[in-house]
Design brief:
Blueprint lengths: L8 E4 L3 H12 L5 E3 L13 E3 L5 H8 L2 H7 L7 E4 L6 E5 L10 E3 H10 L6 E2 L4 E5 L6 E5 L4 E4 L1 E4 L17 E12 L2 H4 L1 H7 L3 E5 L3 E7 L5 E8 L4 H4 L7 H11 L5 H8 L6 E7 L12 E3 L2 H4 L7 H18 L3 H23 L2 H4 L15
Parallel strand pairs: 1-2, 1-11, 2-7, 4-13, 11-17
Antiparallel strand pairs: 3-6, 4-5, 8-9, 9-10, 12-15, 12-16, 13-14, 14-15
Helix pairs in contact: 1-2, 1-4, 1-11, 2-11, 11-12
């Protein structure tokens, strides 16, 4: 690294993007601290499974020096994809991966997060730090104010803090808006023993069915788990409109069975047989395009920069962003130059992807036009 004196780098968010950036910086001899609002690494469930693509997510893992470990954890068989007719559950599309196919293997989000977290120097992640605001002049140093009263200074602030980023307001007034699509998440555990019919239906990877108004998307996770996403075009307050809340499992199930009447019984089991309550996930996105004037001490990556529907690119782009930013920092004489070089590539790429996926979340409800191979609800 040629930047002197050594800059104080603060990465906000210990998701895949933030951790990838810290890991690659450390491999180049650059220290960075990661701040996350969670109380610790096991504070919450990390979500479902995702596929890491060879042209973005896997590139980042190579720069992080973690390909071998990833290969041991990844599930190439998870690339299987099935699509069913809704009326009789007959298969209308079946994508079977070849034995040597490794273009987009699946890995649980929690496994990926742990892989990255365990690769960092001890003490890199500072848990229990909920960022409230970023202040200070554009040329630095920036002052970061946390909810517990802690204030730190940084020469570079990297916003890797997701959809509701607290770093984004420094650069942009944009906020995520609801796109009219809701994912209601259902969980199934020990599926091969407790839910063998669902395990057989879903197979080793993912399965889906859609009728033009609603969609069921199921994905196998490791450890005998399956997650199902019940996808609908509904108002943001759709449950409240019918007098329900997210904890009213029986009421939601009754409502869904009515909405999915006419679907094959085997598909309706994805609604009725879940273990535990549903999790309500309204989808939000940032404006297209989302750009900003380059700032010499603050930048964004991942969902903080380009929040999109969950269609198989979010984590992959976040990790590619992180890799390119870390390499830019390692390869330039000043932080400002590194940020400009990074954003010169990242912003057009994210705009292109946002434009391509704009409206795609609604399209997945249409069984005649949607390509099931592009969906990753993880």
């Amino acid at each position: 690294m040629s930047i002197t004196p050594t800059p104080r780098i603060a990465i906000i968010g210990a998701g895949p993007g933030g951790l990838t950036c810290a890991r690659i910086l450390q491999r180049h001899g650059i220290r960075a601290a990661v701040y996350d609002l969670a109380s610790g690494p096991d504070d919450r469930n990390q979500g479902g499974t995702l596929d890491l693509h060879e042209d973005n997510g896997q590139i980042a893992l190579k720069e992080a020096g973690l390909v071998e470990e990833f290969t041991r954890l990844a599930r190439p068989e998870g690339q299987e994809m099935r699509q069913f007719h809704t009326a009789d559950a007959a298969i209308r599309f079946h994508q079977r991966p070849t034995e040597d196919q490794f273009s987009a293997p699946e890995i649980d989000r929690g496994q990926l997060r742990d892989l990255l977290l365990n690769s960092l120097e001890p003490g890199t992640v500072r848990w229990g730090h909920a960022l409230q605001s970023v202040e200070g002049p554009a040329d630095g140093p920036r002052r970061l104010h946390f909810a517990d009263g802690t204030v730190i200074e940084a020469d570079l602030v990297i916003g890797a803090d997701g959809a509701w980023s607290k770093v984004r307001p420094v650069l942009s007034p944009a906020t995520p808006t609801y796109i009219g699509i809701n994912y209601l998440e259902a969980w199934f555990h020990d599926v091969d023993n407790q839910h063998p019919e669902i395990a057989e239906l879903v197979g080793h990877g993912s399965a889906m069915a859609a009728d033009g108004e609603r969609c069921l998307f199921a994905q196998r996770n490791s450890g005998g788990h399956i997650r199902v996403y019940i996808i609908q075009s509904v108002p943001a307050d759709w449950l409240a409109q019918v007098g329900l809340n997210s904890q009213d499992t029986d009421g939601i199930r009754t409502l869904l069975l009515d909405r999915f009447r006419g679907w094959a019984p085997s598909l309706r089991r994805l609604i009725t047989d879940n273990d535990g309550p549903y999790l309500d996930r309204p989808l939000h996105a940032l404006p297209v395009p989302h750009t900003w004037e380059s700032d010499p001490t603050v930048t964004l990556l991942g969902d903080a920069a380009h929040l999109m529907p969950p269609l198989g690119v979010g984590v992959n782009l976040a990790m590619l962003d992180a890799s390119e930013l870390a390499l830019a920092i390692a390869g330039h004489d000043t932080i400002a130059e590194a940020i400009r070089a990074y954003e010169k590539n990242m912003l057009p790429r994210s705009t292109e992807m946002q434009t391509m996926l704009d409206g795609a979340a609604s399209g997945l409800l249409d069984d005649e036009t949607f390509d099931p191979g592009q969906l990753d609800a993880g």
